[in-house]
Amino acid sequence: MNLANLANILEAELICCDFNLEKAVTYVSAGDLMSDILTSTHPNALLVTGLVNVQVVRTAEMLDIAGIVFINGKKPTKEMIGLAIKKGIPLFVTAKSLYLSCGLLYTAGLRNPSIA
Amino acid sequence: MDKKGPKEQLTTSKDINLQYAIKGLDLLAAGEASSNIKHTLQLIGFSPAIIRKAAIAAYEAEMNIVIHGRQGFLKAVINPKRIELIAEDTGPGIHDIDLAMTEGYSTAPDYIREMGFGAGMGLPNIKNCADELTIDSSVGKGTILRIIINNY
Prior knowledge:
The complex is a heterodimer of chains A (116) and B (152). Chain A is an alpha/beta fold and 116 residues long. Chain A has 5 helices and 5 strands, in the order H-E-E-H-E-H-E-H-E-H. Chain A has helices spanning 3-9, 34-37, 54-63, 78-87, 98-107, and strands spanning 13-16, 28-30, 46-49, 67-70, 91-93. Chain A starts with a helix and ends in a 9-residue tail after the last helix. Chain B has one domain: 2-Layer Sandwich (Heat Shock Protein 90), CATH 3.30.565. Chain B is 34% helix and 27% strand. Chain B is built from 5 helices and 5 strands; from the N terminus they run E-H-H-E-E-H-H-H-E-E. A 5-stranded antiparallel sheet of chain B has the order 1-2-3-5-4, with helices on one face. In chain B, helix 1 (32-44) runs antiparallel to helix 2 and helix 2 runs antiparallel to helix 5. The chains are: A alpha/beta (116), B alpha+beta (152). At the A-B interface, helix 2 and helix 3 of A face helix 1, helix 2 and helix 5 of B.
């Protein structure tokens, strides 16, 4: 499963960075607490969140996250898009909720990253 | 974990030294220092797994300064054998280090939690990423974290 496939499953719109969309993704980290997300150990995971601020992109950068999906139609800010372009992290927006998004991704075979 | 205080630094003339001033409560700029350290480690050619550990530990330490410290520094001393990160702040200090190391314990204010931080995972996560962690803290004066990540 790659980022383009996952975006289709979530009916997500690509906001920026249409490169690395073929990168294979096996794991998903989900939640609004970046403190919790930062404890996950797998690189190239998909981050699914309802939190919208620059530190979400920073967290993704440190964790080598493959892409970020914002739920409930939440749009990233200009600062976030600027940083994501600089760091090469694709950003998506889905109208679906966190629970539904995670359910769809789990059904598609994606799994929970182990905790450090 | 050694709580006694910083040990003698094992530095060599070939060390790369980086130092960044960190401003308290600047949540927009937070992470820039860690990003620069990560980029430097990538340029040097450390393995992705080591870089990831160092980046996460640096970022957690930097966020701690931003959240709790009034101001501080994030330093990196890099040589082929290890990466040393030093996070120094003039914040309120840590009253009880054992309690601060407990997952879920946090003294961060609500608006920091609304930013996605202050969940009480920072110091335990740094410890998980590090081969050595030293915390030297004085209440009312500040805190110095010394983090060692060995390159093997």
